[in-house]
Amino acid sequence: MPERARPSSDEPLLDLPSDDDGMSTEALENQVQKAQEALLSLKRQQDQIERQKRELEELSRRQEQLSQGRGEMVEKFTRAVVVLERETYEARKRVEMLESIHESFSAHMDAMDAINPKTWEGLDINKELNKALSAVDDARAEYTSSLPKISPESDSDGTDPMAISAGYQMDYSHEAPRDFLYWLKAGFAFTLPIVILGIVFLLVLISSASHTTTQ
After folding, report:
1. Cα separation, 170 vs 26, whole angstroms
2. Inter-axis angle of helices 125-150 and 180-214, to 10 degrees?
3. How far apart are CA 140 and CA 20, in angstroms?
4. What is the per-residue pLDDT for 122?
5. If pLDDT is split at 50, 70 and 90, which confidence band does 24 have?
6. Which residues are CB-contacts of 155 (< 8 A; sequence separation ≥ 6)?
7. Of 2, 20, 112, 163, whose CA is between 20 and 30 Å from 150?
8. Residue 176 carries which DSSP code?
């Protein structure tokens, strides 16, 4: 067998297998294929590791978001609960006050309904009239003192929110227009005591005249 040509010292040495070294081209190709498969496997492992890394980072981000959001809402709800407790306490106090005013107003309404001059016949009219006027004054004073508690804004504009909600406006200022029916009712209310006293006085005169005539 002829000797292989020895490479010169200037030529690079390549450690390539030859048929004489016992490795065929097919074996070399198998080695290359195995190396490529190993690289592909490493690539898949690298991709899997990177995917797991991204999933862990997303999980960490969501956990941090959960922690921040939970802390924020706990703080807000804590403040809100304190405010609600205070508002509930104030609302209960206001309800109790309104119930007390309601009872007082109902009692005054009953007192106003009970005033009936027709039932004073045979009684001391002056005394009954004083009692009735005193009841009206007490009712007016109670209404005036309770109105700001029912609607605090009524102090600033001088309006009567109870009258407005009932469908009419009760305003004692001189600027509000009055119709004929109002003045008729007012005149009747103002002159009623005088009329009653006049009738009583007239009856007394008639009685005295009749008694004199009989004698």
Report:
1. 114
2. 160
3. 130
4. 79
5. confident
6. 148
7. 112
8. S
What whole-number distance in Å separates Cα of residue 111 and Cα of residue 140? 12
Checking 205-212 for CB contacts under 8 A at 24+ apart, the result is none
How far apart are alpha carbons 166 and 90 in whole angstroms?
26
Phi, psi (deg, nearest 5) at residue 130: -65, -40
Residue type at position 31: Q
Length of the chain: 215
For 135-183, write each residue's pLDDT tens digit: 899 989 999 988 888 876 655 555 555 555 555 444 444 445 555 566 5
pTM: 0.45
**Residue 13 vs residues 6, 9, 10, 24, 204: alpha-carbon distances, Å:** 11, 9, 9, 20, 157
Q: What percent of the chain has pLDDT over 70?
A: 61
Q: How far is 174 from 112, CA to CA, in rounded Å?
A: 26
SS3 115: coil
Q: How far is CA 60 from CA 10, 49, 51, 100, in A?
A: 60, 16, 14, 59
DSSP-derived letter for residue 3 is P
pLDDT at 14: 41
Helix axes 125-150, 25-114, angle to 10 degrees: 170
The reported pLDDT for the residue numbered 7 is: 45
